[in-house]
Amino acid sequence: MLDIAFAKAALPESGALVLPLAEEDMGGALIAEWDRLLGGHVTRGVAAAEFKGRKGQSATLLAPGGGLSRLVLVGLGKREALDAAAAEAAGGNAAAALGRESVASIDARAIGGWAGAPADIALGAVLRAWRFDRYRTKEKPEDKPRLGGIKVLCEDPSAAKAEWAPRRAVAEGVFLARELVSEPANILNPPEFADRLRKLEKLGVEVEVFGQKDLEKLGFGAMLCVSQGSAQPPRMVVMRWNGTDQKKKDSKPIAFIGKGVTFDTGGISIKPAGGMEDMKWDMAGAGTVSGLMAALAGRKAKVDVVGIVGLVENMPSGTATRPGDVVTSYSGQTIEVINTDAEGRLVLADVLSYCKKRFDPAFMVNLATLTGAIIVSLGHEHAGLFSNDDGLARRIEEAGKAVGELAWRMPLGEAYDRAIKSDIADMRNVGAGRAGGSITAAQFLQRFVEGCPWAHLDIAGTAWSSKDQPTVPKGATAWGVRLLDRLVAEHHEGRQATPEPEPAEEEVAAVTGAGSASPAVLSEGTPATEPLLPAPDTGAGPAGEPAPVPLPTRRPATRRPRR
Q: Which residue range(s) make up the domain with 210?
């Protein structure tokens, strides 16, 4: 992590200087101050670069005088629109422009209006500067980033330093998640993943690791059917952060569950070869939960939290689960495995049931790179959000908007639930057709929450970025760590009671497209002109089957497991 320091504004003796400026700052006192110190170079450079302070705009002036190597101007846009996200983006853009500098200073005085502004710009710089280069051995020196530290210039360095402490802890959690997701699958298998999580004990997290025999004794038939084709044994890791001083009998923790498929070939329902290397990050949900626990413990959050990750490798072999096999889950419900590439929901089914039975949490949130269908629906800008509780869903959406990790709520309902009805077991693990693949996956998970307030975040489209973003370099994003940390901080930390559940009600369609030949209805079930790259847990079934017609009744979306 970059070294971050805070100081009063003064001309640095060397290195680079970054000036974040709003549109209203052009020609103002701040530019005049630096223009005087640098012998008029700022005004001339601004004019030559036609820099207007627009959001996202930047310009670099080389050797501007005063012993500086470069002056970087970063636009903030309209001052009235400035917020923490804009400050973070400015810090990230600054870090990207400073890659060849060893030290730099950022004048944060133009970003005002809230106490944490200097810390926010520092957070953006730190998040963008992260790099996974563990396996690079031939990189040229000139290609390596040199930036080691940033000094943030501000009015009150002591206050900024205090604001930075919790942000630093969150950044450490983000980095843990990014590192786990970036690791190749031959290094990060389930046992290695579990061993790394034991290191969280140094932060005060209680860590329990369950091995193959433990899971067999518990009756984790759904999770174990995924791992049985692999030479790598499964693991379940239970992490507990007890941040409250009082332990009342009626107090309940909050729980976060992550899918951790360290590599997903699809099993016997094997994926196409093209792009399969990306399936090393099919454990991104578990990575996010791990990073979240590190963040909460690192900043000593006053809340009781349980984090559980189910870790498996999905491989084809002579011992692998076959399509058509029936397995018995921890909850006692039986599952007909139609598609072994719909494996993540099998892992989560047992972990969700176990979490509910053992901890009886106030709510559960699970994260998973669960379906390729969610990418078809939402692209890479939003994660899919499914929930049986309106209040929980609303709080997740709001927390996501605050930190720039967006989630879009998707429907649940009895009509979708009927699509996973099996002829020989309690349910099948995929719907009867390609339509609504992300929704039927969520309906499957809901059968294992036993009425507990619950949300499912399908992060298949947001866990990995193919391009640089202001605060996220290309690669693993750690999507969800900051969202869930904000959720905890704003709604659950330091509170004796959790918000009252707001059970969701199913919306019934007045008109359905069942049996229609409309392209809009059949688009996902129609063969594409080019095959899609393999996506996590696609669970695609036979195409072309009509969707079931919803019954004209209203039922609560919350369902109890069938016994």
A: 170-491
